[in-house]
Design goal:
The protein is mainly alpha-helical. It has one domain. It is 65% helix and 3% strand. It is built from six helices and two strands. It has a two-stranded antiparallel sheet with strand order 1-2. The chain starts with a helix and ends with a helix.
Length: 135
C-alpha cells in the first residue's frame, strides 16, 4: 500500500511540475534572469507548493511526528553552517542557473527523451556516486 501511495505522490508531483512548466529549462532560466525577460510565474508556483505542503503536513501527520502509515518523521534541524552545506548549495545553485534544471524536474522530464535532459541525469548520477565515495 505504501509503495502505491509513494508512486501516486510521485506521479502527481511530476504532473504538477509539467503543468507549471517547471520542467522547461527556459522557463526556469527566465525566472532566474531578473535583468532580461524575467518571468515571475514560478514564484507563484513555489508559494503555492509551500502552502499545499504546509496544509498537507498538518492534515496527514499526527502531532507532526508520525505519518499516516505510522512511520516516524525525522526532523534533522541544524543551525550549523559548515563547508559541506556552503559548497553543496553553491554547486546546486550554479548547476540550476546554468541548466535551468534541478533533480525533480529533470526526472519528470525523462519521458521526453531529450538528449540534454538525459545527459543532465547521467552527470547527476555520476556526481552523486563521486560525492558518495568522497564521503
Amino acid at each position: 500500500m505504501k509503495l502505491l501511495v509513494y508512486l501516486l505522490a510521485g506521479v502527481i508531483f511530476g504532473i504538477g511540475l509539467t503543468i507549471s512548466q517547471m520542467v522547461d529549462p527556459m522557463k526556469v532560466l527566465n525566472f532566474l534572469s531578473i535583468t532580461e525577460s524575467w518571468d515571475p510565474s514560478l514564484a507563484f508556483v513555489m508559494v503555492g507548493a509551500i502552502g499545499l505542503f504546509s496544509i498537507s503536513r498538518i492534515v496527514f501527520t499526527k502531532n507532526n511526528k508520525v505519518s499516516i502509515f505510522g512511520d516516524v518523521i525525522g526532523q534533522k534541524i541544524s543551525s550549523v553552517i559548515d563547508k559541506k552545506l556552503v559548497v553543496g548549495s553553491i554547486l546546486f545553485g550554479v548547476g540550476w542557473g546554468i541548466t535551468g534544471l534541478c533533480p525533480g524536474p529533470a526526472v519528470a522530464n525523462i519521458s521526453n527523451l531529450d538528449p540534454k535532459i538525459l545527459v543532465f541525469i547521467l552527470v547527476m548520477i555520476i556526481s552523486m556516486r563521486i560525492s558518495h565515495r568522497l564521503k
